[in-house]
Amino acid sequence: MNKRAVILGAAESGVGAAILARKQGFDVFVSDLGTIKDKYKKELTDRQFDFEEGQHTEEKILNADLVIKSPGIPDKAPLIKKLKEKGVSIISEIEFAGRYTSAKKVCITGSNGKTTTTLLIYHMFQKAGLNVGLAGNVGQSMAWQVAEQNFDYYVIELSSFQLDGMYEFKADIAILLNITPDHLDRYDYKMQNYVDSKFRIAQNQTADDLFIYCADDPVVKLEMSKRKLGARCIPFGLGVPPAEGAGIIDNNMIINWEQNIFTMSILDIALQGSHNTYNSMAAGISGKAVNIRNEKIRESMADFKGVEHRLERFLKVHGIEFINDSKATNINSTWYALESMTQKTVWIVGGIDKGNDYSELFELVKSKVKAIVCLGVDNSKILEAFKTLGIDMVETQSMEDAVRSAYFLAKNGDTVLLSPACASFDLFENYEDRGHQFKQAVREL
């Protein structure tokens, strides 16, 4: 009698998990409480899976030997509680995929910068000719790739939600970029719970594995002083380079690695701004760790294109540069964006606020921003927060209006920055939709 695997959620990770589970001999059932997207429904139908949408049929789920759940389903959901009471093992797709591959796994987490760092490492590994897959929050489902491809390396972006469902999984190289308050609603509003979740990236690591971390991040630094990790710990920061790790001297990034030194001017790195210097250091150390040659690491950092909707320098119109940073959905991401601005900036901000404290941005706004364009259904909190700074402020309720207003407020040599610091669901489907609408509105100027 085959073991029964139930997959909850039928998007990329769920369909991938179903394909791998069947390959490993499980009896598979897929259930999604919402509507399954056409392309995934076609996969499930073509491959003749037993699946349902718009409901969770408990008698088909509670008899599972193993449940692989989408990271979006909270542990507090009634169905999950029932499964736990029955003692059913509930894991994430990445945990499941990790059980069936011997590939080396480079895993990246952090509150900000993880997509950029993940894609930069993937770009670097590809350029160096390594046989590498991209998985986790970006790329294709890891389980799907484990089932149907044969990679030697996986570069995996992991959110705290994914890490929460991981138990036996082990990263060969784990990277922790930073920890700032985010998603606290999922962690009983306790910062330590969120911190513990992020540190799960180091679980099961041994002395043969690497844990690469930002020594400048106050939360990470404090936590490192309290923990005894099994892995070899490699720090990076903007200060003097450690004996092993990365740092900066006179605008040069220096990576000390096993008697071999890598140097590169930070002015030659495609991704500018101090936050991107951190991302590049983490990527550079990973490259050194898998013996990529210095010139390949240098080339990758110089020609990397960056991530769509993340400080994406989009177009110049009459000497005004438009930058799409729609992916900035929290204060910290926007802080990084404003910090990297070198021209006078018209800032487009707003959406659904996740409990933002705008005072953290006051100093940067005073020094960098000439005008603020609010874009949201309710802009009152932003107007209230910044009214004392004496900066021009405009209220808008559509992207077209926001872009046009910003264009009139800016002049030749200025920058217009969309960096909302908020979720997008009041006016847009998601941050990608918001970014695409921004780019469309700029094209129409």
List the helices and strands and how they pair.
Blueprint: E1 4-8, H1 12-23, E2 27-32, H2 38-46, E3 50-53, H3 58-61, E4 66-69, H4 78-85, E5 89-91, H5 93-98, E6 104-109, H6 114-127, E7 132-136, H7 142-148, E8 153-157, H8 160-164, E9 173-176, H9 191-199, E10 210-214, H10 218-226, E11 232-236, E12 245-249, E13 252-257, E14 260-265, H11 274-289, H12 294-303, E15 312-317, E16 320-324, H13 331-339, E17 345-349, H14 362-368, E18 369-375, H15 380-386, E19 392-396, H16 399-409, E20 415-418, H17 431-443
Parallel strand pairs: 1-2, 1-4, 2-3, 4-5, 6-8, 6-9, 7-8, 9-10, 10-11, 16-20, 17-18, 17-20, 18-19
Antiparallel strand pairs: 12-13, 13-14, 15-16
Helix pairs in contact: 1-7, 6-11, 6-12, 16-17
Q: Could you describe the 3D structure shown?
A:
- The protein is an alpha/beta fold and 445 residues long.
- It has three domains: 4-91, 3-Layer(aba) Sandwich (Rossmann fold), CATH 3.40.50; 95-303, UDP-N-acetylmuramoyl-L-alanine:D-glutamate ligase (3-Layer(aba) Sandwich); 312-443, Protein-Tyrosine Phosphatase, Chain A.
- The chain is built from 17 helices and 20 strands.
- The chain has helices at 12-23, 38-46, 58-61, 78-85, 93-98, 114-127, 142-148, 160-164, 191-199, 218-226, 274-289, 294-303, 331-339, 362-368, 380-386, 399-409, 431-443; strands at residues 4-8, 27-32, 50-53, 66-69, 89-91, 104-109, 132-136, 153-157, 173-176, 210-214, 232-236, 245-249, 252-257, 260-265, 312-317, 320-324, 345-349, 369-375, 392-396, 415-418.
- The strands form four sheets. Strands 7-8-6-9-10-11 form a six-stranded parallel beta sheet, with helices on one face.
- The longest helix has 16 residues, at 274-289.
- The termini are far apart.
- 49% of the residues are buried.
